[in-house]
């Protein structure tokens, strides 16, 4: 989930085509990409298309007012990772996105070798959740698998995090993953009770893990190589499913 040069927007969106305290970007692995590595760009929002971005400190300083002007309606910011890591730009990004009028959400990058409840407590101690915000997200990727762990143990720990955060905040978190990782590690039917944020790039339609086949996806991270005015460098582009009812008020 990537300064002084501002990128200018120029693309047209088509619906449905569309561990340590010293964190390393390589920890956050992403789903396999196609050979098309050219950055994509986002045009202004029209016709109820709900576009979003997700960021961490890797994006550097962000002009959130320009992000809003670009038609972006929502943003997810990385809050925490594992048992100890807090993203250094989280609070600044949270305040900037909120002040610019974007709907905001926070996510936690899950580490398999860390205690799930300690991870949940770290997230809750740092995430600035308020009524009207997007639900918290648990980021599940191959980069978070450390050492050997069975699918059953991983699922048990994931559910422990989800259930703890849900009980504390009174809102169901969202699960972020991709279909290959999900099919390998996530098969418990209880997971289908949580909305899915699926990542897949360079396709007309994302493939969801089997657990979510009936429910489908709520948010689709459709590229990690996007440019958008107001953000330094490339950011992840996200689309809220236009066939799903809005779970928050976007405007």
Task: Write a structural description.
The protein has 251 residues and is α/β, with parallel strands linked by helices. It has one domain (43-240): Glycosidases (TIM Barrel). 22% of the residues lie in helices and 20% in strands. It contains five helices and ten strands, in the order ββαββαβαβαβαβββ. The protein has helices at residues 64-69, 90-100, 116-126, 151-169, 179-185; strands at 40-41, 51-55, 74-81, 85-86, 103-109, 137-139, 174-177, 196-199, 219-227, 235-240. GO terms for molecular function: ATP binding; hydrolase activity. It comes from Algoriphagus sediminis. InterPro entries: GH, Glyco_hydro_25, Glyco_hydro_fam25_subgr. Keywords: ATP-binding, Glycosidase, Hydrolase, Nucleotide-binding.
Return the string of H and E elements.
EEHEEHEHEHEHEEE
CATH superfamily: Glycosidases
Instruction: Give the total of domains.
Output: 1
> CATH topology, what is it called?
TIM Barrel
Provide the CATH architecture.
Answer: Alpha-Beta Barrel
The number of distinct β-strands equals 10
Total of helices: 5
Low-confidence stretches: 2-47, 226-233
Strand content: 15-25%
Spatial separation of the terminal alpha carbons: 25 Å
Short description:
It comes from Algoriphagus sediminis. This protein has five helices and ten strands. It is α/β, with parallel strands linked by helices.
């Amino acid at each position: 989930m990537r300064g002084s040069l501002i990128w200018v927007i120029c693309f047209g969106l088509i619906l449905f085509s569309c561990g340590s305290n010293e964190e390393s970007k390589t920890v956050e692995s992403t789903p396999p990409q196609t050979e098309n590595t050219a950055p994509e760009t986002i045009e202004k929002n029209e016709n109820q298309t709900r576009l979003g971005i997700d960021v961490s400190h890797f994006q550097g300083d962000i002009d959130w007012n320009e992000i809003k002007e670009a038609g972006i309606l929502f943003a997810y910011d990385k809050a925490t990772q594992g048992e100890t890591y807090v993203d250094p730009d989280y609070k600044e990004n949270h305040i900037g996105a909120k002040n610019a009028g974007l709907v905001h959400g926070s996510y936690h990058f899950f580490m398999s070798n860390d205690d799930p409840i300690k991870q949940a407590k770290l997230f809750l101690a740092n995430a600035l959740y308020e009524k009207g915000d997007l639900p918290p997200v648990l980021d599940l990727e191959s980069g978070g698998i450390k050492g050997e762990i069975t699918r059953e143990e991983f699922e048990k720990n994931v559910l422990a995090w989800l259930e703890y955060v849900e009980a504390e905040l009174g809102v169901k978190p969202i699960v972020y993953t991709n279909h290959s990782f999900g099919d390998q590690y996530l098969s418990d039917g209880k997971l289908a009770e949580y909305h899915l944020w699926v990542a897949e790039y360079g396709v007309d339609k994302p493939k969801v893990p089997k657990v979510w086949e009936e429910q489908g996806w709520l948010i689709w991270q459709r590229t990690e190589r996007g440019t958008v005015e107001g953000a330094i460098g490339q950011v992840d582009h996200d689309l809220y499913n236009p066939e799903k009812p809005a779970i928050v008020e976007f405007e």
